[in-house]
Amino acid sequence: HTDFSNLTRNDFPSDFVFGTGTSAYQVEGGAAKGGRGLSVWDVFTLRTPGNILDGSNGNVAVDMYTKYKEDIKMMKSMGFDAYRFSISWPRILPGGKLCLGVNREGIDFYNDIINTLKDYKIEPYVTLFHWDTPYALEQEYGGFLSQDIVNDFRDFAELCFWEFGDRVKYWTTLNEPWTYCVNGYVSCKFPPGAASSPPPPPSPPPPPTSASNLNTTYTKTLLSSSLSDNWIATHIAVDDQPIKYNFIPYRGSETMQQSNLNLVPHRGAFHDNYYMTTYALSSGLESRVFNKTLIEKLGRSSINGFLTLSTPTKDVYTVGKNLLLAHAAAVQSYRTKFKAHQNGQIGITLVSCWFEPLNKDNEDDRKAAVRARDFMLGWFLEPVLSGRYPQNMIDNVSVDNLPQFEPDEVDLIKGSIDFLGLNYYTSFYASHDPDPNIANGYNRDQKLAIYQEKKVGNRKVKIGEVAGSDWLCIVPHGIYELLKEINQTYNNSTYNLPPIYITENGVDEKHDHRLTAYQACKDQQRIKYHQDHLGNILKAMNDKDGKVNIKGYFAWSFCDNFEWHVGYTSRFGIIYIDYMNHLRRHPKESATWFSKFLVKNQSGDNKGSGNNEPSAN
Ligand code: PNW
C-alpha cells in the first residue's frame, strides 16, 4: 500500500531515532566572530560572488551562531530526539593545523551547543567535515588534493574527540565525499572552482578540423587569449530563445571537443568584473561566470552565452582517495585512543540516488544503473567495507587516473565504519552509453546517461514531481529500492554492512519574494515527502525477504539555510527563515506535522508528553 498519511513514530521501533540536521557553513554565520579562520567557502563566495546564484554567502547565514539556544528549544518543542550538526574546522583550528593553535572560543561555542542539547535531552550527532576545508590548507597544499591533509584532519578529529567525546556518542567523519569531489573537481560548482586548479599549458592545442562550423574568429580569439584559467569556451545565446550552441571544452592537455546541447538563456547580469549568466538545462539551472578578461577580449555584446570550468580528470579521484584516507585515519584514532572510555560510535555519511534502468528489459541499461550507483555510493562504500574500489570503477577508470590503495591503506580503510549514514533525495533513470558526448573524465568514465524522464507511448513522463530544485524529482519508492539494493549487495559476510541511519532526506521550495512568511509556511508537498519516504523506509525495515537494519531518520533541514551554490534561493527547512525580518523563525506546516507525528504512545517505554507543538520565540 502507498498511503502513509496515518503513519506515526509509534509504527517504528521504540528506539528508532528522529532528528533534523544542519551544517556549519550553511547555518552558523558568525564568519568573522569568535576567532574563526577562513574556510574555502568564505573565499569562494566572497572573492567571486558570481559563483553563487544570488551572489550571497554564509557570512551571517541564519545566525545560528547567536540563535542556537532558541533553535534547540524549538527542536525540543517539536519532539525530536536528536540533532545532526557539523563542526566548522576553521572555527576551532583557524590555521587548519593543530600546531598553529586551538581557538578556545570556538571550542566553547560547540561545548555550549552540546550542553544545551544535553539539557533538553536531545542527542548530538556530530559531523566533523561538511565541506568547509580551512582555507589555509587549501593554500598550503591544495586541500584534499594532497595527502598532507590526512594528518591535519586526524589532528582536528582528535581535538574534537578529546574536547567533546565525553558527551558526543555519534560521530560521522565526512558528509558526502561524493558531492565534495564531483561539485568541487568535476562541475566546479563548489570550491576550489577552476581558479585554484593548475593553470593550462602555455599554448593550447589547435582545434580539431571537425570544429569547422564554429565561428572561427571567435575560436581564434579564445585560443590566443591569455586567460590563466582552464576555461571552457562557448558559443553564444540569443535573447530568450531556445538555441543550439557549441561549446569547446578545453581541458588541459586533452584535445578540444565540440558538442551540441539545447539551452534556454534564463537571465544574466553584468557585475563589476564579471558577467554572470544562468541558463536552463534539463538537468537544472546552471549559472556561469565570465571573467573580465574574457569580456574585454570579446566585447560585452557578444557575451550572452556561458562558459564553464574544468579540472584534470585525475583530480576528482585523488581527492576521493584522500577523503577516504582522512576518514580512516580519524576512525583509527577514535578506536585506538578514545572508544574504550568514551564508548561512542563512528561512521561516515554517503549520498546516493536510486538509479532505475531506463529500459528494464535491456541488460545494458540494467548494468548501467548498477554502474551509476557504484560511481556514486560504491566509490566510498565499497572501500570502507572491503578496502577496494567497486569492480565497475576498476574496469572503467584508467589506471593512471584512479589512485590505488597501498596494502597498509587497505587495512586502515577496510571495516572503518560502525554505522552508515545515508542521504537520499531523488532518483534518476540510467541507460548505457558507450561513448558519451561529455568532455569530462568522471562523467565519461561511467559510460552512461542519466535522465529524469522517459518516454511512455508518445509522451515524456517525469520520474517524479519536480520540487524547488530541478535536480530533485520526488521519488519516495526510490529510497525503498536503494535500501533493498544496498542490503542485497553489502549485507553479507563479504561486506558486513553495519546499521544504517538516514542522515538526510528532504525537499525544497524555491524562494519566492512575493510570499509573506505566513504564505511560505504552507508546505504540504514537504509533509507528503517525509510521510512517503518514512513509509518506504519502514517497508524496507519490515521486508519479508530481508529486513534492512535502519536505526534513525534525520529530516534535512531543521531550517532554511545557505544552499551552497544556489545561495538562499532554495529552502529545505521545516522551519522558515524570514531573511528580510531579523532572521525570524516560523514553523512551516511540516514542522507542525512532525510535532504530531513524533508524539509517543502513552504505553511502555514509548511514553511521552503527548503535546509537542513547535513554537517560535
Ligand atoms: C546535500 N543528490 O547534498 C548536502 O549534504 C546538504 O548540505 C545540502 O543542503 C542538501 O543536500 C540539499 O541540497 C546533496 O545527488 C548532494 O541527490 C547530492 C544529492 C543530494 C543532496
Task: Give a structural overview.
- With 617 residues, the protein is of the alpha/beta class.
- 35% of the residues lie in helices and 20% in strands.
- It is built from 19 helices and 25 strands.
- The strands form 7 sheets. Strands 1-2-3-4-11-13-20-22 form an 8-stranded parallel barrel, surrounded by 6 helices.
- Strand 7 (259-270) and strand 8 form a beta hairpin.
- The protein is globular.
- Residues 23, 26, 175-176, 179, 351, 353, 423, 425-426, 504, 556, 563, 572 line the site of 4-nitrophenyl beta-D-glucopyranoside.
Helix content bin: 25-40%
Q: What about the largest sheet?
A: 8 strands, parallel, barrel
**Which class best fits the helix and strand makeup?**
alpha/beta
> What percent strand?
15-25%
Provide mean pLDDT, rounded.
Answer: 83
Number of helices: 19
Bound chemical compounds: 4-nitrophenyl beta-D-glucopyranoside
- Spatial shape: globular
Task: Give a count of the beta strands, DSSP E runs of length 2 or more.
Answer: 25
In whole angstroms, the N-to-C terminal distance is 40 Å
User: Rg from C-alpha positions?
Assistant: 24 Å
